[in-house]
Design a protein that fits this description.
- The protein has helices at about 1-5, 15-30, 45-50, 70, 75-80, 100-110, 135-140, 200-205, 220-230, and strands spanning about 10, 35-40, 55-60, 85, 90-95, 115-120, 150, 155, 165, 175-185.
- The chain is of the alpha/beta class and about 230 residues long.
- It has one domain (about 1-230): Spore Coat Polysaccharide Biosynthesis Protein SpsA, Chain A (Alpha-Beta Complex).
- Strands 1, 2, 3, 4, 5, 6, 7, 8, 9 and 10 form a 10-stranded mixed β-sheet that branches.
- This is Glycosyltransferase family 2 protein.
Length: about 230
């Protein structure tokens, strides 16, 4: 079973609640090669969680951001000889997502040899109104459901959102796809109550670069606003 042997690299930075949910889901699904790649987190409960984790925890000692699996050499170490999965810590498969999701991604990648990576689709139909950027999420994400390859598979850009990468160095031009229902996940920051952030959310916002913090801030960074406006007209 591919789920057992697939390296799963989780990019970690000052978020505990979603990380714990993701690790729990992966453990229940049978994943055994979890790598928690920490980008110099300082949130005390997360630091304690990492210290107690039975999984492979890599402390980078600096924040390399969403490219940390490759900049740190961990992707090269674990993924050049086999397909490997990279994800942010706040992308959680929905309750209806089958536990064989990683096996399913392998099957898609092996069947469509022209794809360089495939990730879970992101659910948007239940994003709540109390999330300040809900309308922007809808505008941005709608484009990723418009180019079906086959039933349950769409040609779409995939970043670090529960995505299986083809073995070997990243290609110069990535060709990616997202799966459809029920193989979808929630991006948990989109479900936050923007007017009433939790203590963890406040800590995360205060310890991150506003330019990198994309969907989490009170105001979207200009680069993201321009990207959304350019893509949706």
């Amino acid at each position: 079973m591919s789920t057992v042997t697939t390296p799963v690299i989780i990019i970690v930075r000052d978020r505990l609640k979603p990380l714990a949910l993701l690790v729990d889901w992966l453990e229940r699904a049978g994943a055994q090669r979890l790598v928690l790649l920490d980008n110099d987190s300082t949130y005390p409960p997360l630091v304690d969680y990492l210290a107690a984790s039975p999984h492979d925890v890599r402390l980078l000692g600096r924040n390399l951001g969403h490219r940390s699996p490759w900049l740190s050499g961990v992707a090269q170490e674990l993924g050049w000889s086999r397909h490997y999965l990279v994800t942010d810590p706040d992308v959680i498969p929905v309750e209806e997502c089958p536990s064989d999701a990683i096996d399913h991604l392998h099957e898609v990648l092996n069947r469509h040899r022209w794809l360089t990576k495939v990730g879970l689709g992101l659910r948007i139909d239940d994003v709540p109104g109390h999330y300040a950027h809900r309308d922007d999420v809808m505008r941005w994400e709608a484009q990723f459901w418009k180019q079906p390859i086959e039933p349950g598979l769409f040609a779409a850009h995939v970043d670090t959102t529960f995505a299986l990468h083809r073995a070997g160095p990243p290609p110069r031009e990535e060709v990616s796809a997202r799966t459809g229902w029920p193989y979808v996940a929630r991006h948990l920051p989109w479900y936050a109550d923007s007017a009433n952030p939790t203590e963890e959310e406040r800590y995360y916002r205060s310890h991150t670069d506003a330019g990198v913090n994309s969907w989490d801030g009170d105001v979207l960074p200009q680069w993201l606003r321009s990207t959304i406006d350019g893509a949706t007209g």
